[in-house]
Amino acid sequence: MAVAVLVVNYRAYPALARCLASLMLWLGPDDEVAVVDWVSDAQALDPVRARFPGVRWVPRVDNRGFAAGVNLAAAATTAPTLLLLNPDSVVEGPVVRGLERWLADHPRCAVAGPQVLDADGQVQASARRFPGVTTALGGRTSWLTRRFPGNWFARRNLVTTVEGGHQVVDWLAGSCLATPRAVFAALGGLDEGFFLYWEDADYGRRATNRGYECHYVPAVGAVRHTGGESSAHAPVRSIRAFHHSAARLFWKHAGLARLCAPLVWLGLWLRGEVKVAAARLRT
To answer: Which end of the chain has fewer beta carbons closer than 10 Å to its terminal beta carbon, N or C?
Structure first.
C-alpha cells in the first residue's frame, strides 16, 4: 500500500517548506509526494527542492488553477491512494496512514478527510452539506456565520465535530482529503473548469452521484490549515474566482433550478464585487 500526496503551490514557499517538513514525519518508504508549482520562482523554489530531494517537482511558468494542478500532480505519481494537501497545511498526526486504511476498509467511501484546524487550533468546518439556498446565510464565509457561528443555517451547512468516529457528509474541503486513484480516474479527476474553489464540492457531488460516500473521519488525526497563503498574492482574482466557481457549481448541478440562474449569478456577482471593493480598501 502506498499514498501519493498531491500539493499545488502558488508563491507560498515558506508555508510549503513547513508543510513538507511535517508531512515527511508520517510517510512510508513507498509513498510519493508531487508538488505542482505554478508561476514557479526558481530562486524561491530551489532551497525547498534541496531540502526535499525525494519530492517530484512539477514547476510551471503558467497558472491553470488548483484543479488542473491536482490533476498534473496525480499524473506524476502512481500510488493507489491520492491525498490532496494544501501547501499552507501542517500535518499533526498519522493522517496519511489513517486515511489510507479508512478507504481500504470502506469500499463505498470515495472521499475521506481528517479533522482540520485553524491556525489558532479551532476546528475548521471542512465537512459540509452540498450548497443550497441556506448556504448564502450559513456558509463558512458568510457574515452570519462569522458573527454568530452557532446559528441554525451554519449548523445545517457545516460539520465541525462528530461523535462515534466518523460521519457521512456531502463533501469535504480540498485542503486535505483522500480518494482512491481508481475513483479519481473514473470521475475524470477534478473539473479544471473550476480555477479555484468549489472543485472539491463538485468532486464530492459527482462521487455521490455514482453511489459513493464522503466520510469525515476526525479520529485519524488532524491537519492545521492556515489558509489564504496563496490567495493573498492575488486577492481580487481569488475573490472573483470563488464567486465564478460558485456560479459554475450551481449551473452544473442545479437541474430545474437553473431557471433561477440569472438571479443566482447576479447575487454572486454583487457579493463578489462588494468583497473586491472591501479588499481594495484594505490594501
So the answer is: C
Domain ranges of the chain: 3-124+160-231, 234-283
- Decide: 52 and 44 in contact? Cβ < 8 Å: no
**120 exposure class (CB count in 10 Å sphere: 0-12, 13-18, 19+):** exposed
CATH, range 3-124+160-231: 3.90.550.10
The pLDDT tens digits for 230-265 are 878 888 999 999 999 999 999 999 988 899 899 989
- Cβ contact 159:127 at 8 Å: yes
Q: Is this model's pTM higher than 0.70 or not?
A: yes
Cβ neighbours of 155 (radius 10 Å): 13
Categorise residue 93: left if φ over 0, alpha if ψ from -120 to 50, beta otherwise.
beta
The partner residues of 273 in beta bridges, in order of sequence, read none
CB 96 within 8 A of CB 102: no
CA 222 to chain CA centroid, Å, is: 15
Rounded to an integer, the average pLDDT of 44-64 is: 97
HSE-CB at 110 with a 13 A cutoff on CA atoms is 24
Look up residue 92 and give its DSSP letter: -
List phi, psi (to 5°) of 36: -95, 125
Query: β-strand 176-180 against 222-225: which pairing, if any?
Result: unpaired
Question: Looking at residue 214, what is its pLDDT?
Answer: 97
Which residue, 107, 100, 37, 98, is CA-closest to 72? 37
28 and 40 in contact (C-beta within 8 Å)? no
